[in-house]
Amino acid sequence: MRVLVVEDERVLADAVAVGLRRESMAVDVVYDGDTALEHTAVNEYDVVVLDRDLPGIHGDEVARTLVAEAYNGRILMLTASDGVQDRVDGLTLGADDYLPKPFAFPELIARVHALGRRSAPPLPPVLERHGITLDPANHRVYREGREVGLTPKEFAVLQVLMRAQGTVVSAEGLLEKAWDENADPFTNVVRVTVMTLRKKLGSPQVIQTVPGAGYRL
Question: Can you give the residue ranges of every domain in the chain?
Answer without folding.
Answer: 2-119, 127-216
